[in-house]
Design a protein that fits this description.
heterodimer, A: 162 residues, alpha+beta, five-stranded mixed beta barrel, 3 helices, globular, B: 282 residues, mainly beta, Porin
């Protein structure tokens, strides 16, 4: 009986740790319309306020906002998008690193994080789809196209399985 | 005493006839001309300005503070109040909008960016509408009570990491008060800016150079229904300004000089307008 309780504790701990560790890990967001240092400063301040934001860098010259999140951060890509839009800028494509579990509905694969963020997985031709089984916990790096950044469930074209 | 009063009258009149063209410059753009930028949603900024003009009969100097708040990404509100006044008697002022108000003016303004397009990194085309209203309280200008006023202007332009331009224009209207009314002011502005290659980097100061031009048509003042002879003018001014940005701080200095100037009656001509602005973004 004691053995069963220990096994259950380990399983629960594992599940809890997994849920805490997944989520959005890094966003490299291309930003259009940012032309001045105060613009970059304001955007940096806004992004820094996001919960779990561990490192924020906004490059005026590259038009890029890079945010690294602590593992388990509750932030979704939509929140990053919202900060940029509210700053008066236009978010374009984004390179995203995110960890979550795979869900399948119909023919669509979705990566879901513990915080409730969802990303529709788009697998390029030639990528081995075997790793993207429903229930699998994965960390992927991919691109969210400019046309998809405002979607409730943005499409994430997977580039690397980490 | 009379000489001082007359000198002050003209200096103040000149200062106050300046349209509030940078009421919402917010440190992003030119010192005198209209520009489009707004604050981000929830962002605050503080602009502290010193302004001066000279007619050869005397120099006027005033200081104002403007606090701005981004209500939304395309809507910024601002409140402008006087800080102190240099050599101008407080009883001889009248109101204008923006940072060019007098020692008693309280002014509120709203800038609405109604059009925005960002075609590339660091680049945007946009158009804004600026509406301002002010109250001169009990300020009196040479026997005429300076009433309340309203100004509306529109501006469109382009900003990038290398060059900038904006063109705009507007109308400044004074309400009648105690039998008199200060003349309306029509104005247009144009500005071209350049960010030298050396400053196109992410670290260190970010400097921009501007060439600004301002055209004004000030109508005459009316007192008891009679147009005042020594009022009204038409001017074209131009000059340089420089803007330095350092993260949360900005400093800007500029001067305008008359290129064409025609004044009605026995008014002195203007020699220059100068402005120094410190901006902080919270």
């Amino acid at each position: 009986m004691k053995f069963i309780r220990e096994i259950m504790f380990v399983l629960l701990l594992g599940a809890f740790t997994s849920a805490q560790a997944d989520g959005l890990l890094k966003v490299e967001q291309t930003v259009f319309g940012m032309d001045c240092a105060p613009c970059a400063y304001g955007l940096q301040k806004g992004l820094t306020k996001l919960p779990g934001a561990a490192k924020v860098d906004v490059s005026l010259n590259d038009g890029k906002a890079t945010v690294e999140f602590s593992p388990g951060s509750p932030v979704s890509f939509a929140q990053v998008h919202e900060v940029i839009v509210h700053g008066g800028f236009t978010p374009r494509e984004a390179l995203v690193t995110v960890s979550g579990h795979v869900e399948q509905e119909g023919g669509r694969l979705t990566l879901v994080t513990g915080a409730g963020g969802s990303y529709r997985l788009l697998l390029p031709a030639g990528m081995d789809a075997a790793a993207f089984k429903p229930g699998a916990v994965l960390t992927v790096q991919g691109v969210i196209a400019a046309e998809s950044v405002a979607d409730a469930i943005p499409g994430l074209t997977v580039q690397h399985l980490l | 005493m009379n000489t001082l009063r007359v000198t002050s009258f003209f200096c103040v009149g000149l200062l106050l006839s300046l349209p509030a063209l940078e009421a919402h410059a917010d440190g992003h753009g030119p010192a005198f001309a209209l520009a489009t930028p707004t604050l981000g949603e929830g962002q605050w900024s503080s602009d502290t300005a010193a302004m001066s003009t000279d007619t050869g009969m005397g120099t006027a100097l005033m200081y104002r503070e403007m606090v701005s708040y981004g209500i939304g990404p395309d809507l910024t509100a601002a409140l402008s109040v006087p800080l102190a006044q240099g050599n101008m008697p407080s009883g001889m002022t009248r109101s204008t909008q923006g940072m060019m108000g007098s020692d008693k003016d309280l002014e509120g303004s709203v800038l609405w960016r109604f059009q925005r397009e960002a075609p590339a990194v660091g680049e945007r085309y946009e158009s804004s509408l600026l509406v301002s209203a002010w109250d001169s309280q009990d300020a009196v200008l040479d026997g005429m009570a300076a009433g309340q006023g309203l100004a509306v202007s529109a501006v469109t332009g382009h900003a990038s990491r290398t060059t900038y331009w904006w063109v705009g224009g507007g109308l400044q209207h004074y309400l009648p008060k105690a039998g008199g009314r200060l003349g309306d002011l029509y104005y247009v502005s144009a500005v071209w800016g350049w960010r030298p290659e050396y400053f196109r980097r992410d670290s260190g100061g970010d400097w921009r150079l501007f060439v600004e031009a301002l055209g004004e048509d000030a109508r005459g003042d009316e007192l008891q229904g009679v147009m005042q002879a020594d009022s009204g003018s038409r001017k074209l001014l131009a000059g340089p300004s420089v803007l330095g940005l350092f993260g949360a701080w900005g400093v800007e200095a500029g001067a305008l000089f008359p290129v064409v100037e025609s004044v009605d009656g026995a008014q002195p001509k203007e020699h220059y307008r100068a402005k120094l602005i410190f901006t902080y973004w919270f």
